[in-house]
Design goal:
Length: 251
């Protein structure tokens, strides 16, 4: 896996402090289209160059240079297209708002933000982007910045891992590498913070996404099965039966 957790910032927003996560996947010059997913933290995208098209729930957003997009925690979204020259920066932050937000900044500000992001990864000093993150969030979310709350670091990272990679053939060793821990430590932390095993978390992420796609798209079940990570509909069906049995109350 390539996206290790790299930086955790405490960002000042008005009279509150919000925790912000940055990782190597958050600065991209080559856009990769993403599967439907969600995060336990809110996500903010800043487009530096070109145009990127997102779907958030059932709404399409076209973001161009200088614009910023706020995606609330827990909301399904994906990147569906990007112009060949598209650049963007992104980060995750513990702010809560029920609505997606969109706002235009200047392309100059977006460019400075992107350059600061790159410098932060080069120097491993992520504090240099704190002021940019604070400015963007306050402008995007003036009415919700007072609701910043902190959650457990590993709880966030574990949940976000499954949200990002549920459709891939992932194992506990991939999560251990993502967290920078041993497999034994990772196994213990997964159980501690989710009350589920690694396999149960992966199954849960896949089936919740399958439910969402079934209810909100016209995709046939065979296509949904492949989309969420199963090579055959038979494998998806068996996983579905296991998922339903785990949800049944113990007698």
């Amino acid at each position: 896996m390539q996206n290790n957790m790299n930086g955790i910032l405490n960002v000042k927003l008005a009279d509150k402090t919000a925790r912000c996560f940055v990782d190597t996947g958050c600065v991209q010059k080559t856009q990769n289209l993403s599967a439907y997913h969600n995060h336990s933290y809110a996500e903010v995208h800043v487009v530096v160059k070109g145009e990127i098209v997102y779907y958030i729930e059932k709404t399409e957003y076209r973001a161009t240079a200088g614009s910023a997009l706020y995606i609330p925690a827990g909301i399904y979204h994906c990147t569906v297209s990007a112009s060949p020259d598209a650049w963007r920066s992104a980060f995750l932050i513990d702010l809560e708002s029920g609505d997606a937000r969109f706002q235009n900044f200047t392309s100059e500000l977006a460019g400075e933000f992107f350059e600061s992001f790159e410098k932060a990864f080069e120097t491993k000093n992520f504090a240099v982007i704190s002021s940019f993150i604070s400015l963007i969030c306050v402008r995007l979310l003036e009415d919700v910045c007072e609701h910043a709350e902190a959650i457990t670091d590993y709880a966030y990272a574990i949940n976000d891992f499954f949200g990002k990679f549920y459709n891939l053939d992932i194992t506990i060793s991939d999560l251990a590498e993502y967290l920078g821990l041993s497999e034994k430590q990772t196994t213990r932390l997964v159980k501690k913070h989710t009350d589920k095993t690694f396999v149960e978390n992966l199954l849960d992420a896949r089936m919740r996404t399958a439910d969402y796609l079934c209810q909100n798209t016209d995709m046939p079940m065979a296509q949904i099965a492949k989309y969420v990570g199963y090579n055959s509909y038979g494998g998806f069906f068996k996983a579905r039966e296991k998922y339903n049995s785990l949800k049944e109350p113990t007698k």
